[in-house]
Amino acid sequence: MKSGQSARGFTLVETLVVVVLIGILALAAIPLLSSQDPTRLDAAAAEVGNALRFAISEANRGGGYVLVDGSAPGRLQVLNSDASGASLAAVIDPLTKRALDIGTSDPALSGQVSMAPRFFQGGVPYTRLLIGPGTQLQVFDGGINRGPLQAGSGIVLTLGPQSVAVALNETTGLVALP
To answer: Which secondary-structure segment (H or E) carries 142?
Structure first.
């Protein structure tokens, strides 16, 4: 090499610094991008909506009562009930042949989607809904009938900064997905 000429290129230290910085950025960005996948939230909303529709159809078909119980954190259970709101037995999902019980650790919710039932009566959100006979929707809390379901009721699903509500129509019993 002639004197006065500078070598071109990067040193090993410079290259390692750049690689480490790219690795740190990737570690920060990948979890944020993967946790906000809108298809996960849509799949969870569809599963919860289907469970609510099935609960309403079971109350219609059998002429009895069905309790939608979201009082346990991260769980939504559909149970056969009596008029007092006391659960008698789990409603069986005809596809899986298991109790209709949705949890935040289930595959559709994948542990990242949180679920908050909000069945309104008197402006207060409760976690239990008694359906029946037919499409009558009554809010229950601690074995006490709080009265008919009010507008704005449903189940809110949240994934990171995004949230959607699976809404219940208080007069018709129709379930609306976002």
So the answer is: none
148 has a pLDDT exceeding 80: yes
The secondary structure of 77-140 as a DSSP string is EEEEE-TT--EEEEPBPTTTSSB-EEETTSTTTTTT-EEEEEEEETTEEESEEEE-STT-EEEE
110 pLDDT above the threshold of 70: no
Domain 38-176 sits in CATH at 3.55.40.10
Looking up tokens 């209709």, which residue turns up?
Answer: 100
Q: What is the pLDDT of residue 109?
A: 63
- Exposure class string for 74-113: b at 16+ Cβ within 10 A, else e: bbbbbbbbeeebebeeebebeeeeeebbbebebebbeebb
Boundaries of every domain in the chain: 38-176
